[in-house]
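Renewal narrative, Specific Aim 1. Our central claim is that a sequence can be written position by position from structural information alone. The example that follows is taken directly from our test logs and has not been curated for this report. It begins with the structure tokens describing the chain, in the order in which they were read.
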């Protein structure tokens, strides 16, 4: 599991954390994915959470238009323009 996704799951209360980890383990396996396909909401939750973990990869995030350095620079420029430290 990626570091960001692992810390995201680590912030959940223990019952939900265990459930999410089991759900993601199912989604990563072909037979588990077939089982999840029978429960569309669980399937959507599992695959959406797995996709969140891909945002940790700068190449993926950049291809989707997310540039963390640009966001930070824009925020700093706005703070300076407003006279805030």
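The sequence written for that structure reads:
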């Amino acid at each position: 599991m990626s570091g960001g996704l692992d810390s995201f799951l680590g912030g959940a209360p223990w019952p939900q954390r265990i459930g999410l980890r089991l759900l993601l383990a199912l989604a990563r396996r072909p037979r588990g994915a077939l089982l999840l396909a029978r429960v569309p909401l669980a399937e959507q939750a599992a695959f959406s959470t797995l996709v969140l973990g891909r945002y940790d990869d700068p190449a993926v995030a950049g291809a989707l238009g997310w540039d963390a350095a640009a966001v930070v620079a824009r925020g700093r420029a706005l703070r300076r323009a407003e006279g805030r430290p």
